[in-house]
């Protein structure tokens, strides 16, 4: 549980937005930021975001739902959302934990995710669901 990143306190109801501001989310973070990580799967390597998780009911779209676009690949289990105007990835429904959203820490208002320091790297290349 991370209750502050840099000088920014993590609020119980924290807003997040894409770069252009058309998409605005409210995240329920009563325990602060949980499970921050990077992933080395094919999409995460390319987007380079540091993500954390909330339960599915932990994200509410305040504005711009019509601007969100869905991207799916491979098994089409995970649902990756990004702003159709500025291209910023905001959140995704997780493949490994479909009852959770991963969200882009860089979208949290006032947060610089690079102030977290070392962030664990998850092995997304060797996903458990791909193992026989």
Largest sheet: 5 strands, antiparallel
Taking the alpha carbons of the first and last residues, their distance comes to 34 Å
Strand arrangement within the widest β-sheet reads 6-11-10-9-8
As residue ranges, the low-confidence spans are none
Q: What string, H for helix and E for strand, traces the elements in order? A: EEEEEHEEEEEEE
SS strand fraction: 35-45%
Radius of gyration: 14 Å
- Which range best describes the helical content: under 10%, 10-25%, 25-40%, 40-55%, 55-70% or over 70%? under 10%
Mean pLDDT reading: 93
Alpha-beta classification: mainly beta
Family: Belongs to the Gfa family.
Protein name: Aldehyde-activating protein
GO molecular function: carbon-sulfur lyase activity; metal ion binding
Keywords: Metal-binding, Zinc
Explained architecture:
By secondary structure, the protein is mainly beta. It has one domain (4-115): Beta Complex (Metal Binding Protein, Guanine Nucleotide Exchange Factor, Chain A), CATH 2.170.150. It is built from one helix and twelve strands. It has one helix at 42-47, and strands at residues 4-5, 8-9, 13-17, 24-28, 38-39, 51-55, 59-63, 68-71, 79-83, 89-93, 100-104, 121-122. The N and C termini lie far apart (34 Å). The relative contact order is 0.26. The model has no long low-confidence stretch (mean pLDDT 93). Keywords: Metal-binding, Zinc. Residues 14-130 form the CENP-V/GFA domain. One of its GO terms (molecular function) is metal ion binding.
